[in-house]
Amino acid sequence: MSARPSPTTALPEALRAAHQSSGGGTIAPMDSSNTRRDATRLKLFEAAVTLIAEQGFSSTTVDEIAERAGVAKGTVYYNFASKNVLFEELLRHGIEMLATSLQAAAEEVADGGGTRIDALDAMIRAGLDFISRYPALTQLYVAELWRTNRAWQSTLMVVRERAITVVEDVLREAVAREELSEEIDIPLTASALFGMVLVAALDWQSYQPDRSIDDVHAALSRLLQGRISGRPSQ
């Protein structure tokens, strides 16, 4: 299996990709008027995601983020009002990139004439690819998702809804095309599929790293085909 990029190497690419426009897919800079500030913000995001993944949000200080990023402490506050704001922006960028990736996978299948079930399967693969490339960012999201005492709880709800809605849209199309029963609970099924990919992928990364992504995808694909679509697993 090919070597995966480290979270610190992958994050700048992730943040740039998160700024793709929803229509044409053109990558837009974070702030075209100030490329130096863009680069600084990327360094801060990179430092924050790495440190928080290593030692948790509460244990990570602004001083540590600044030191890891190689900037002065005041630079952190110049770009972000607080550590909380930095973390919220990190979540927004990461989940937006994931949602964009899922949507692109579904659209590619649709353009090729595939079914909506095929599109859901492609979204599973896209989710696994994302988590494989950006494990630290995904671990942060999952760790915070079910906590209710965080200042950014409302942000978590918004970014979760963004990702879940992409899956819901494909499920609704599948029902409209009679590929799935109209009795299916779309919101719950979308949440189940999204959660399945997150948990299975992190378990794979942590406890079964010798398995290939193709192997993991095949296992989840059989669950989709046999349970969601009602077709027997192959």
From TrEMBL:
The keyword Transcription applies. Residues 61-80 bind DNA. The keyword Cytoplasm does not apply. PROSITE patterns: HTH_TETR_2. Residues 38-98 form the HTH tetR-type domain. It holds the Pfam family TetR_N. Residues 1-34 are annotated as: Disordered. GO terms for molecular function: DNA-binding transcription factor activity; transcription cis-regulatory region binding. It comes from the Bacteria. This is Putative TetR family transcriptional regulator.
